Structures are given as C-alpha cells and as structure tokens.
Amino acid sequence: MKTFILGRTKKEVERLVPEGQIKTVRLGNTKICMSRIADNYFAFEQACPHRKADLGKGTINKFKEVICPLHEYRFDLETGRCNQANCSDLKIFKTEISEEGLKIYMPN
Ligand code: FES
After folding, report:
1. CA atoms of 66 and 74, how far apart (whole Å)
2. Residue 60 in contact with residue 19, Cβ under 8 Å?
3. Distance 10 CA to ligand 1 centre (A)
C-alpha cells in the first residue's frame, strides 16, 4: 500500500477538490479522480470499468454517485458498485482528511 498526501492543509485540499466536481490528479505514475461532498472525499480510478471512458469528464449526482460521460452508468462513490449488471465495479481508494492534508491510500 502506498500513501499519498494531497495539499498541506484542510483548506488547501478543499480548494483543490471543489465540492461536487471531479478533479483528475496524478499520484506517482497513476492518474485518479477525486471528488468531494461536504467533508467526504472520494478517490477512484479514472477509466470507467465499462469501456474505459474518462470519468474525469463525468458528473457527480446527489446520491453520491459518479456518472460516466459515455453511457451514463452510475457508480457508488463509497462502494464502487455499478448500477448495471454487465459492468464491473469501480475501483475506489480509501481517503482520510486531516489538518495536514488528504491522505490517499493506493494499492501497490
Ligand atoms: S464507458 Fe462508462 S458507462 Fe460505458
């Protein structure tokens, strides 16, 4: 497991990840997507598990789901679960916010 830290303060992280938007960030050699709803931060893979569309161009709805821009499949931001049976779940990464920034835990 690798741990990355985004930002240096909670305020900086809030600016980097505006509420309800999707930001693409590079952690090491991997690009992932980040989103925030209130104080809850979500990190997930950039490529949609269905046909690899860029989820960084997707949207977030009020049910804590990311909606893929290509075929509009929805993925739960907390569990990664897809709303369509013919699609794998989205990989999500654990996050932890503190006054020192946002920790993101990535598998090796
Ligand atoms: S590529 Fe994302 S739903 Fe099809």
Report:
1. 6
2. no
3. 33
Distance 84 CA to ligand 1 centre (A): 10
| Ranges of each domain in the chain | 2-106
Query: pLDDT tens-digit profile of 38-93?
Result: 999 999 999 999 999 999 999 999 999 999 999 999 999 999 999 999 999 999 99
Q: How many CB atoms lie within 10 A of CB 5?
A: 14
Cα(56) to centroid of ligand 1, in Å? 12
Q: Decide yes or no: CATH 2.102.10.10 for domain 2-106.
A: yes
Out of 44, 45, 48, 86, mutate this one to test ligand 1's pocket (max ligand atoms within 8 Å of CB): namely 48
- Residue 20 neighbours by CB under 8 Å, 6+ apart: 35, 36, 37, 60
Q: What is the largest CA-CA distance in the chain?
A: 41
CA 27, CA 24: separation in Å to the nearest integer? 10
pLDDT at res. 108? 83
